[in-house]
TrEMBL record:
InterPro entries: Cadherin-like_sf (IPR015919), Ig-like_fold (IPR013783), Pectin_lyas_fold (IPR012334), Pectin_lyase_fold/virulence (IPR011050). Residues 1-14 have a biased composition (Basic residues). Transmembrane segments: none annotated. This is Uncharacterized protein. It holds the Pfam family Big_9. GO terms for molecular function: calcium ion binding. It comes from Pedosphaera parvula (strain Ellin514). Residues 1-29 are annotated as: Disordered. One of its GO terms (cellular component) is membrane. The lineage of its organism: Bacteria, Pseudomonadati, Verrucomicrobiota, Pedosphaerae, Pedosphaerales.
């Protein structure tokens, strides 16, 4: 048949139509129709656009959306299909230029961590739209993606969820998709899920140079990696744009088994390498997997693949988790091959097209490739390097039979959006696309078309800095629905009215235009509004006169209600709005202050959002509670406004009787391959770890003295996400994943609370995870999940405010005598936190005190000597260090008192009545307190005495006869 021609048009995200900007309403497209996309960039308002399709064909008559032959059709933004089905998308390009508005600089780097950054939220139709999405997001069944080119999309290349059953992906190129986050590269070439009995096919595709994985067929919470067939495709150099490399191809779920995966005659190449560049099974494993005829240049990993068929493969690197002798019908190479490997993969949908893959082990400058099974003699052809697909062909000509020469050296590489070009795969590896150029088929018939119609728009007069109202006008078209007509605006005086300040609204035939003059400008501009049906246009022009600049008015900020949170937990992102009569909302700046910086430092008031819609997130300081008034100030550059809201931070309540139980990991009951290791840098530290993923355990028996809600803390060493989790269960109950350092990976040992994923499958969904324990004995089991995840100690506590510290120095007060050196033992300095009874070393940061005294280490303690003649309060800083190298510092305050004065004595003179005449020597004219003792332990004050001018102190002790021995001193 001669299918009707449908022009590419845009639809708003909230108003689904037949195809992305593609067709009239869906009812005008019928099963069996072909929609031709003409050459050019398809987007709205000269910026990336999110298109949605709800096209619905039938199994016998699918709808085809196809690039017009000989032209390059590009969707700039994103294509999503959530409803409908039986649609073939064929041959066009999907990418994101990130040219959202004037002033945007394309970037593929975010300062945020995790898979959902807000970096690429952009204003769109008065709303904030997230452009961190897959280039093609398929959520409808029975579709085919044929020879698409999906690249430079922020959220990833192709995404397919479980609703997109029975999907075929064929001949696709997926590259440069994703972004570099603060933690790692994100965004895969293909991310897919599938549930049996539905199937998914990925065939004859090239997936390369994406930020994260090439392809990841996985998911959590239920088995959603079933019935994948991946055949004849190449996955190479994925992760090359990121700071660290991940896998090229991963198949397997987090939980449950992947049913019936098929991986056949694929090609993998990389130069970075990981422990599992190809990973079959992942955490959950698979059943009835078939892995045949693949060429694995890099390392592979196999895990829990029940009833697996493994034959005809070539392995050039490590085969982790695989007993090679159990699968003898493969080639396990120990040296680099010396003969080239060349594969030509014909395209079943486009005769004469093929993918060419070359492993250039012979180090040739060019290789001979036999394409006689693909091209008829006399066919004009081009060969394009996959890494420069839209660039100049590396070879072109007319096929004369036999082999063609394909270069391996000096291959160009296209530049990604917002990043630098990665290295070329050549000369060691090459991926190419062979295209015939001699014929054009399926040319659509011409269609008659008349220009759209636009009504006149009256001239406008505005005050400087003030936008116009929404000016109404109408549009129509004899052949095209009004909803599909697009508008553009231009200004004759962009200094007064930039083109970006001409904004359209309305829908269908009834449209509006709003004109906003630039700040501090006045004058006249002619505004031209152009309406287009995709082929023809019509225009109307009106004049805007802007008067002199009026007085600036302050911006406006909405109120925020009172907020509450708990200690150590940030608030959610609190929404508010800002606006200004003269200044664009995007130019308004925000600042936040706290009335209680001890509770909420100003730096912990963080803003998000954009344009008029902003958010604020407030994070209390660690371990603090109380109330603070948070003031937000919005500024337009010369005037400002504020809003204030109270934030209450409540402290968790400790139980009446707190329990803290410390346990060494090596003291638990070990099941191999969970093993005790010794820290190479500190022989006194021992810890446990499993050497094999999903195997081994350590169990602790804990006697709980008080029933209640308990928390478990683990001391772990997790430098990266590759080895940072255990399974944890109590008393044989529910087992959940403990992500022991999610987002806080470190090369240092650290304490983290045992958490869980719950039913969501997401790390830290339960943080912390709580355990209800009765009084008595309980078992706590840590089971191996990832190899080399380490555990040094655990603490079980019912105190929600408790945060473990191996050693904690507390400020102390000591007493010493003046003019005397005093020795303080190490026990004088130890704080209350030394749960594991580690050996503590006391040291000092400086040999001098604040009041000129001196301190030094001696026999594990400290010697203190005050400045001569000093009395009063003196301080110095000390540090406690345990045997594992953990340390903590605090201040010691020394109260220095006058030392007892031992006055020199002269011979006693005993009187006839038994009294004793005592004479002592002191300082002339000094008053003393006279004391007497019979045992040098208990002293009794006799009275006050004074030394004479000669220094002698004379007195008579009438009680002398009542003592057997007598000692005297003055103070």
């Amino acid at each position: 048949m001669s299918p009707p021609r449908h022009r590419l048009r845009h639809r708003k995200r909230q108003q689904p139509v037949g195809s992305p900007d593609c067709v009239e309403p869906a009812s005008s497209v019928k099963p069996g129709d072909t929609i031709w996309l003409r050459g050019g960039v398809h987007r709205q308002l000269n910026r990336p656009t999110k298109f949605t399709s709800s096209l619905s064909g039938t199994s016998a008559a699918p709808i085809t959306v196809r690039q017009y032959p000989g032209e390059r059709a590009t969707i700039d933004g994103n294509l999503t299909q959530s409803t409908g089905g039986y649609v073939n998308y064929w041959g066009f390009e999907v990418m994101d230029s990130q040219q959202f508005a004037s002033g945007w600089i394309p970037t593929r780097t975010s300062t945020q961590t995790g898979p959902f950054p807000t970096t690429w939220w952009a204003p769109y139709d008065g709303k904030q739209i997230d452009f961190c999405v897959s280039g093609v997001d398929l959520r409808a069944p029975n579709c085919k993606l044929i020879n698409l080119v999906i690249h430079d999309n922020i959220g990833g290349g192709l995404g397919m969820n479980t609703a997109a059953g029975n999907t075929e992906v064929y001949g696709m190129l997926s590259y440069y998709n994703g972004w570099q986050g603060a933690d790692r590269g994100h965004g895969h070439g293909i991310y897919a899920q599938n549930v049996a009995p539905a199937v998914k096919y990925v065939e004859n595709s090239l997936v390369f140079n994406n930020y994260a994985l090439g392809m990841q067929a996985t998911g959590s919470a239920s088995p959603i990696a079933d019935n994948f067939t991946i055949e004849g495709s190449a996955f190479f150099l994925n992760g090359a744009l990121a700071n660290s490399h991940q896998q090229n191809l991963l198949i397997g779920p987090y939980q449950g088994q992947a049913q019936n995966p098929v991986v056949r005659t694929n090609f993998i190449y990389d130069t970075q390498g990981t422990s599992s560049d190809f990973f079959l099974g992942y955490d959950g494993g698979s059943a009835n997997a078939i892995c045949q005829g693949n060429y694995f240049q890099t390392s592979t990993m196999f895990n829990a693949n029940a009833n697996m068929t493994l034959a005809g493969n070539t392995f050039l690197s490590a085969t982790i988790g695989l007993t090679q002798s159990s699968y003898p019908n493969n080639s396990y190479l120990t040296t680099t091959p010396t003969k080239n490997v060349i594969a030509v993969r014909p395209n079943k949908y486009e005769p004469g097209r093929a993918n060419i893959l070359v492993y250039n082990w012979e180090k040739l400058n060019s290789v001979a490739v036999d394409v006689s099974q693909v091209l008829p003699v006399g066919t004009a052809y081009e060969v394009h390097s996959a890494q420069n697909f839209y660039g100049t062909p590396v070879v072109k000509g007319t096929y004369n039979g036999g082999s063609i020469m394909v270069p391996m050296m000096g291959l160009p590489v296209a530049a990604p959006v917002g990043a630098s070009a990665p290295p070329a795969a050549g000369p060691n590896f090459g991926a190419y696309v062979l295209l015939p150029t001699s014929s054009v088929t399926n040319t659509p018939p011409p269609a008659t078309n008349s220009a759209p119609v636009i009504s006149s728009i009256a001239n406008q007069t505005l005050n400087a800095g003030t936008a116009s109202s929404a000016i109404a006008f109408t549009v129509s078209d004899a052949q095209t629905a009004a909803t599909s007509l697009t508008l553009a605006g231009t200004s004759s005086n962009p200094t007064l009215v930039p083109n970006a300040n001409i904004v359209f609204g309305g829908s269908s035939s009834n449209r509006t235009v709003t004109v906003t003059p630039a700040a501090n400008q006045s004058g006249t501009a002619n505004i031209t509004v152009t309406v287009s049906d995709g082929s023809l246009t019509s225009s109307k022009t009106f004049t805007v006169t802007v008067s002199a600049t009026p007085v600036n008015t302050p911006p406006v900020i909405s109120t925020i209600t009172a907020q509450t949170t708990v200690t150590n937990k940030a608030t959610a992102a609190i929404a508010f709005t800002v606006s200004d009569a003269q200044t664009a909302a995007t130019s308004l700046t925000l600042a936040g202050t706290s009335s209680n910086p001890t509770l909420v430092p100003n730096a912990n008031i963080v803003f998000g959002g954009s344009s008029s819609n902003r958010t604020v997130t407030v994070t209390p300081a660690a371990n603090q509670s109380g109330t603070a008034n948070i003031t937000i100030t919005v500024n337009d550059g010369s005037a400002s406004s504020t809003t204030t809201f109270p934030l209450t931070v409540t402290a968790p309540t400790a139980p009446a009787q707190t329990v803290t139980i410390p346990l060494e990991a090596e003291a638990g009951l070990l099941v191999a391959p969970m093993t005790v290791f010794t820290n190479a840098q500190n022989s006194s530290q021992r810890y446990v770890a499993t050497t094999t993923a999903e195997q081994g355990s350590v169990t602790f028996i804990v006697n709980v003295p008080v029933a209640g809600t308990y928390y478990i803390w683990g001391k772990v060493l997790s430098p990266s996400f590759a080895a940072d989790s255990f399974y944890v269960s109590v008393d044989g109950g529910t087992e959940d994943v403990y992500d022991d350092a999610e987002g806080v990976w470190s090369n240092n040992w650290q304490w983290t609370a045992v958490n869980g994923r719950g039913t969501t499958g997401q790390p830290l969904a339960l943080n912390p995870r709580t355990f209800t324990l009765s009084q008595g004995s309980h078992s706590i089991k840590f089971r191996g999940r990832e190899a080399n995840a380490t555990l040094d100690r655990i603490i079980v506590s019912n105190d929600p405010t408790f945060v473990p510290k191996d050693v904690a120095a507390n400020s102390i007060t000591l007493t010493a005598n003046g003019n005397t050196t005093t020795q303080f033992t190490s026990t004088s300095f130890q704080g209350t936190t030394n749960l594991f009874k580690d050996t503590i070393l006391v040291s000092i940061a400086s040999p001098y005190t604040t009041q000129g005294g001196t301190v030094s280490s001696c026999d594990g303690g400290i010697l203190y000597t005050p400045k001569s003649g000093f009395t009063g309060s003196d301080t110095f800083t000390f540090t406690l260090t345990d045997s594992s190298g953990n340390s903590s510092s605090a201040t010691a305050t020394i109260t220095v008192q006058a030392a007892p004065v031992r006055t020199a004595s002269v011979p006693l003179q005993k009187q006839a009545d038994g009294s004793v005449q005592v004479v002592l020597k002191g300082n002339p004219g000094t008053n003393y307190n006279l004391q007497v003792s019979s045992d040098l332990q208990t002293w009794v004050t006799l009275g006050n005495v004074s030394a004479g001018n000669d220094g002698l102190i004379a007195f008579t002790d009438n009680s002398a006869s009542s003592f057997r021995s007598k000692f005297y001193r003055t103070i």
